Amino acid sequence: QVQLVESGGGLVQAGGSLTLSCAASTHTFSQLAMGWFRQAPGKEREFAAAINWNGATTYYANSVKGRFTISRDNHKNTLSLQMNSLKPEDTAVYYCAADESLLWARTYASASEYDYWGQGTQVTVSS
Fold first, then answer.
1. Which residues neighbour 44 within 8 Å (Cβ) at sequence distance 6 or greater?
2. Angle at 76 between CA 53 and CA 52, to 5 degrees
3. Helix, strand, coil: what percent of the chain each, to 5?
4. Cβ contact 98:5 at 8 Å
5. Long-range CB contact pairs, 107-113, < 8 A, 24+
6. 65-120 pLDDT, tens per residue?
7. For labeling, which of 12, 47, 64, 118 is most exposed (least CB within 10 Å)?
8. What's the average model confidence in pLDDT over 30-41?
9. Pick from 10-19, 21-30, 103-112: least confident
10. Nearest to 51 by CA among 76, 79, 17, 19
């Protein structure tokens, strides 16, 4: 069983920055692919960023590419999302997720493929 706890959300003005963190309670963190998803009110959960087990491979949604950076520390069992140049449309609940699948590289943007989820952290960007 993998437990994920997000932190770091909050209220920020447009153009500002936030760093989200996700702490994983598992001995197998270094074997997991990880992702960040977000869900705005009235909208479906959408992919934001993903990273493979050792951090060598990352993927980003077009909407966040160049502004967000996903990273991980396998020694500390943590996942991070550095968010710069935030826009009001980035307002959402952000979730971290873990994927045990060996086929993750084919399905990294699909929320249904992830096995474990955190409870989410709210990010609000004011204009």
1. none
2. 10
3. 10, 50, 40
4. no
5. 108/33, 108/35, 108/47, 108/50, 108/59, 109/47, 109/50, 109/59, 109/61, 110/47, 111/37, 111/45, 111/46, 111/47
6. 999 999 999 999 999 999 999 999 999 999 999 999 878 888 999 999 999 999 99
7. 12
8. 96
9. 103-112
10. 79
